[in-house]
What does this fold into?
Amino acid sequence: MIHFLVVFAATLLGCFAARVELSWDVGYVYGARDGFTYRRAIGVNGELPFPPVHVTQGDTLVINVHNSLDVPTSIHAHGLLNNGTNYYDGPDMVTQCGIPPGESFTYVLETKNQFGTFWIHGHTRHQEVDGFHTPLIIHSRKQPVIDYDEELLVAFEDWYTTEFNVRQEYINNLKGASRPPTNYAKALINGYDGNNTAPITFVPGKRYRLRVVCMSVNNWFKFRIPGHKMTVIEADGVESMPLEVDGLSMGPGQRYSVIVTAHKSDEFNYIYNVTSYSRFITKEEGLRPIVYTGLIKYKDDAPTKTIPVVSDNQLVWPEEAQLQAYDKQPRLPVDRQIELTVNRFTDVYNVPYSALGSSLYKSVLVPTLYTALSMGNLANNSSVYGPQTNAYVLKHLDVVEIVINNPAIEDHTFHFHGHNVQVIETGPFGSSSTINGQPVPHILSGPWPMWRDTVQVRAFEFIRVRFRADNPGVWFLHCHLAVHMYNGLAVVLIEAPDVLQQRQSVPEKMVEMCKRQGIHTQGNGAGHQGFDLSGLPPAVYPPS
It folds into this structure.
């Protein structure tokens, strides 16, 4: 009977599914998004911000991408599992070659049974930092965790005065010279300067679903509406058991849906608070952290209600291991554990780097997916991918537990491509059990751990997560802070390459796109057979 219901539900979903097709011309645009600095950025169809994408559970999202940049590009639907279509996942030289300048490519993204709050961003040369991103909302076909009257989208970004790659290459090429002043980011709310964002309008008595997307690339965001409680019902595209909180604390790449009930009276308007900060940048009055305020408007001429200021330490914020999954799946039993520790070091020129595996992640000469598909039985040996990839080969259907340790005074968010992971435990790690005078909490999940694709690992903290290796493919696991990713804080999970070879093959157009750029499409990480890795750039290992 249960099998029949599952098949019936899947059939019904297919009956209502639509094909949603978009055409994106990715190119340079110019403007002063922060209200001050006029600069070059990356937009779509001449717009920045460009419109959010809305589809419905079960739909096929087709995005025809034309590259009008002068460098390659690609897109990643952040949180979409791409089960059976690993080649559409997007990270350059992991699952594809970038789309060359002047060329076009079509991504066919199947939402299948996924629904919730996601986003789409560039995944070549850190183009998401320069504006190439937008929310992706997959509307559910089923009853929500809590009914609501209306939904609103709230998106956060951090915005810098110079293009990311220009600045990073300049810093890394200083070779001992004085580093430039810190480039403090401004915050954008719903695509515009945080101080000039349009009010959020509430109608008395209505219940609102706020979909909150943190599209930042280095900064954390805290979001509160004093005088109103929030109830979390979704995190990273997965429904949660309702949890009442005072506000949200979000790292780069994370998403939440919260229910906020408007007051019954329109006697007062209210002020919402957005704080943008980054622990690895020194505090400076008025610059870091920086607080933005906006209006919750009940009535045009209503006065603004004054709410007493309360310290963040006295408020309730959702913790990674505190949320419970609405589907009530119990903790998975572990078949294999992988322990990863953030290793931060500087080179002789005092340029900082961070390694997650044994070496700094660097792109190799063949997209890693293509190596997994073309190396036969040797694809099960992590050595063929090159030490620069920090490759871990996983067995099909094993339950893998990954522990990430962070012994330094920097916060991270780590994004798992191709998987949601159960958040099992967080707790103190390293030389300190406190941060900013507050103890690092130890939290063990309840019986139904929350599933997420992007997890915070704060300073002096560890996190323990689990997932079943049921999505054969090559999946990136990386810090979602652009400056850390640029400097190599990533590993690659090679999942069931034997099964992958039986089930998937790269579309010929993708293969030809590589060949036109002189990029190998077969062989090990260096494009050779066997273990001959000659020609790869040297691996960079942290000092012992």
User: Anything to note?
Assistant: Residues 43 and 243 are 36 Å apart (CA to CA). The chain has six helices and 35 strands. Confidence is low (pLDDT under 50) at residues 1-12.
